[in-house]
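To illustrate this point, what follows is a protein record of this kind.

___
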Amino acid sequence: MVLIWYGLLSVEAMSLKEKRMVIRSFKDRAMKKYPVVVAETTHQDALDRAGITVAIVGTDKALLESILSKLEVEWYNAGGGDIIEDEVFIWRERG
């Protein structure tokens, strides 16, 4: 099973350089602590927001959702702003 999360996040930054430092801090911390892949996928040139996509692969849906909840805390700890909106997609192989 693959859980994919997309979040539109507000970023409190005075420059794109500062925004990228916040995003990089979140990505590095998340990928070091959890078995996830994180990428900034939209709004790269916007100063006040970022579109972040997280992918997690596993067999236990509850565990994947738990990791996702912990990542929200990581976002706030990295100095991020609010989560404006988010979507979760779950892909399961049939067979």
Summary: Strands lie at 2-10, 36-42, 49-57, 83-91. The helical segments are 16-33, 61-77. Residues 16-33 form the longest helix (18 residues).
